[in-house]
Write a structure and sequence with these properties.
The protein has about 525 residues and is of the alpha+beta class. It has helices spanning about 25-35, 90-95, 115-120, 155-165, 195, 200-210, 240-255, 300-310, 315-345, 350-360, 370-375, 395-410, 455-470, 485-490, 495-505, 515-520; strands at about 20, 40-45, 60-65, 70-75, 80-85, 100, 135-140, 145-150, 170-180, 180, 185-190, 210-215, 225-230, 365-370, 385-390, 420-425, 440-445, 475. The chain has a domain at about 65-180: 2-Layer Sandwich (Uridine Diphospho-n-acetylenolpyruvylglucosamine Reductase, domain 3). This is L-gulonolactone oxidase.
Length: about 525
């Protein structure tokens, strides 16, 4: 029986004729045999978090949520092997119990490992690469139902092609990831002045000196906020590859024009989660540290953090729980969403909402101590569009200034935040960060109570144009409108080799849906469009 499938943001919908829920690679092969017998098409669904049409099909949709086992963890070789449908949060918790961790920790972890590598999901930090780059082996059922193994020691070049697979090579059933010894992190978050956020040399230095660094801006304000993460109690001496290029660009710019200074909660199974129910979208939750207290000064927060290691008085615990509920559920989840909903009808209110939010949540320093899962991931708020691009890291501040100028010139109204993260160059052919140190710039526009803001499409189309002018590459899971010409220009021989491997793995194009066919077509079609053909 057909039933609808959508993404977390509920942007678009498809009505697959068949839903499949395999529990093993053998069952995946049986599904593919059935699809071939029907002369059909097939796409693979993970947790449904990508707010575009990448998983959409009206034919066969294969759900991976029952292939969610962690196969093995080897501390000696520092390798983890898991099925593709396991959640990132489950992987990180399992590694933590073995004294290990992933270096790449996405901000949002209610996503499957298979989906994360398919889209080159990333974290932030000068030494950190996208999750695809930490793949050491893959098992994939191709379009003929044959099981392939890609391994670093066997066929390294093909593994790098297949790691960021876009769901176009087959069904990834098993993944082996490189892991590392667990680190206790200290994450210091502070308000950031606009003068400092637009000082390219200063930003470059912070990227160099911190193993984890990101900053974000609340549009229609002068308010920015930053987070600096390092191993707790350990001095850092980071490679200068990214920051050297950034500092050079900053110096050149200054000569021309001086600056103006997460037991994890599993989501419901698809058949238990009707369209429209219980969906939340992501937002940096810097006001709710899981480990340390929030206070007016980092020193006070660290002092409170030491005290938090002991058992709290029941009354204190009750007050703390109530405060968290008021701050994070009542205000951030309810009041903010309803305020944005009102602004959809009365757009002139948007700058006032942004300023109020910035003053409430982005003016207080905070210090957190804990695992990467505790420090680098955050709660979700509500449904949203998402648009994120990867540009050369040395152009981060330039991009920020151009984005602000565009917003002011075009009188655009934005939600919040605009986020800047940094990663090392990737080797995975289809990663947006392939071949160059990267700054990822993300612009969020919410869908409060299912309503659309006045300028969502206008903001996103303008941002896309700006990023293309800066030789950016879009995040695969988000908003863009690329065809074959744009793919060839941005990825060159990487794209050519990927298409060659795709033809080898899927000669009958069984896994090609509308979304992927658009990437191979001469026309530009938006990544959220789905006509159901």
């Amino acid at each position: 029986m057909s039933s609808q499938w959508t993404n977390m943001a509920q942007i678009g919908v498809c009505i697959p004729a068949h839903h499949h829920y395999p529990t093993s690679a053998a069952e995946v092969q049986q599904v593919i045999a059935f699809v071939r017998a029907c002369n059909g098409k097939c796409r693979v669904a993970g947790a449904g978090k990508s707010p575009n049409s990448s998983t959409f099909t009206n034919d066969h949709l294969l759900h991976m949520n029952r292939m969610n086992k962690i196969v093995s963890i080897d501390a000696a070789t520092r390798l983890l092997t898991c099925e593709a449908g396991v959640l990132m949060e489950d992987v990180m918790n399992a590694l933590d119990r073995h004294g290990l961790m992933l270096r790449c920790v996405p901000s949002y972890v209610q996503t499957t490992v298979g989906g994360c590598i398919a889209t080159a999901t990333h974290s932030s930090g000068i030494t950190c690469r996208s999750l695809s780059d930490y793949v050491r082996a893959l098992k994939v059922v191709d379009g003929r139902g044959e099981l392939h193994t890609f391994a670093a020691e066997k066929n390294a070049k093909e593994l790098r092609l297949a790691a960021c697979h876009l769901g176009a090579l087959g069904v990834v059933t098993e993944i082996t990831l490189e892991v590392q010894p667990r680190v206790q992190w200290r994450l210091a978050s502070n308000p950031l002045s606009m003068a400092d956020a637009t000082d390219a040399a200063l930003v470059a230095r912070k990227v160099r000196e911190n193993e984890y660094y990101r900053w974000w801006w609340v549009p229609h304000t002068e308010g920015c906020y930053e987070s600096c993460g390092n191993p707790d109690g350990e001095a850092t001496d980071r490679p200068a590859a990214i920051s050297t290029a950034m500092e050079k660009a900053a110096a050149e710019e200054k000569e021309a024009d001086p600056p103006t200074r997460v037991t994890p909660k599993r989501p419901l199974k698809y058949e238990e989660a009707p369209v429209g129910g219980g969906l939340r979208a992501q937002h940096p939750d810097v006001s709710k540290p899981r480990i340390a207290a929030v206070d007016a000064s980092p020193a006070a927060a660290e002092s409170d953090n030491r005290r938090s290691s002991s058992v709290l008085d029941p009354a204190v615990a009750t007050v703390s729980a109530l405060t968290n509920w008021v701050t994070n559920e009542l205000i951030r989840h309810q009041l903010v969403e309803w305020s944005l909903w009102v602004a959809c009808r009365y757009p002139s209110l948007q700058p006032h909402i942004n300023r109020t939010y910035q003053k409430m949540f982005y003016t207080t320093p905070a210090v957190q101590r804990g695992s990467a899962l505790q420090c680098f991931t955050f709660d979700c708020l509500f449904r949203q569009w998402a648009n994120e691009w990867a540009i050369d890291a040395s152009r981060a501040v330039e991009a920020f200034q151009k984005l602000r100028a565009m917003i002011e010139r075009e009188k655009m109204l934005l939600h919040f935040p605009v986020e800047f993260r940094f990663t090392a160059a990737d080797d995975s052919d289809m990663s947006p960060a392939v071949g160059r140190p990267t700054c990822w710039i993300g612009v969020v526009m919410y869908r409060p109570r299912g309503q659309e803001a006045r300028d969502t499409r206008r903001v996103y189309d303008g941002f896309n144009k700006l990023m293309e002018e800066m030789e950016g590459r879009p995040h695969w899971a988000k908003y863009y409108d690329w065809g074959h010409r744009e793919m060839s220009a941005a990825y060159g021989s990487h794209w050519d080799r990927f298409l060659e491997l795709r033809r080898k793995m899927d000669p009958d194009s069984l896994f090609v849906n509308e979304w992927f066919s658009h990437l191979m077509s001469p026309d530009r079609v938006n990544s959220t469009d789905f006509k159901g053909n």
